[in-house]
Specification:
With about 190 residues, this protein is mainly beta. It is about 10% helix and about 65% strand. Strand 4 (about 95-110) and strand 5 (about 110-125) form a beta hairpin. About 35% of the residues are buried.
């Protein structure tokens, strides 16, 4: 509930920003990104609890924004990333955020779009070399800034927090991962 309150407060902050007239942020866009990620993974019932720093994660994203008022937007976005949480000296393991489906709320400030996003995260846990993997799901929260370079090209800077938990009874240890990401990206707007 605390995380949903944060997302609501961030969305309200975006809505309180000074608005520009309806501009070039509405419509479809696609892009690519690179994230620097930091994570903490815990395993229920096992003595394993690891943190990793500065993994690099490539990704793709696509979305659609609609103006809902003078300079305010609401949109949907799907992201595909490879946020591997890494390993420790004893055992190689991974927690990967494969896909997020998010709602974005933003304020058009001319060439800049300030936004907050919240949504559903899907991922996979695995122990490298083991004959099984486990699916997981959870949430993602983000705040960011998109900046329009040309009529159709923008740059992105975003901070996100994701939490996923294993939900597959075939995967022996229950796992949880908290992943923070600082993302830079570029998008083409149609």
């Amino acid at each position: 509930m605390k995380h949903l309150s944060f997302a609501f407060a961030a969305a309200l902050a975006c809505l309180a920003a000074p608005a520009a007239a309806d501009g070039h942020w509405g419509g479809a866009y696609v892009g690519f990104s690179v994230s620097s990620t930091q994570s903490n993974t815990t395993w229920s019932g096992l003595p394993f609890d690891w943190s990793t720093d500065d993994s690099m994660a490539p990704g793709l994203f696509a979305g659609y924004n609609v103006y809902v008022g003078d300079g305010f937007l609401v949109g949907g976005e799907v992201t595909f990333t490879n946020q591997d949480t890494g390993s420790n000296p004893t055992i190689a393991y991974g927690a990967v955020i494969d896909t997020t489906i998010r709602v974005r709320v933003g304020a058009d400030m001319g060439d800049a779009l300030v936004y907050a996003a919240a949504g559903y995260a899907m991922g996979e846990f695995d122990i490298f070399g083991a004959p099984f993997t486990g699916d997981g799901d959870g949430y993602v929260l983000a705040v960011g800034l998109d900046y329009m370079l040309t009529e159709n090209l923008s740059l992105r800077a975003e901070f996100s927090q994701s939490h996923i938990e294993s939900d597959d009874p075939a995967f022996p240890p229950a796992m949880e991962a908290d992943i923070q990401a600082l993302t830079l990206g570029a998008a083409f707007h149609f």
